[in-house]
Amino acid sequence: MQSSIAHRLLDSGSTRATSAPRISERESEVLHLLGLGFSTLEIAQIQNRSINTIETQLASLKTKLRIKSGRDLIRHAIQIEETR
Question: How far apart, in Å, are the Cα atoms of 31 and each of 5, 10, 21, 49, 68?
Answer without folding.
Answer: 36, 29, 14, 15, 15
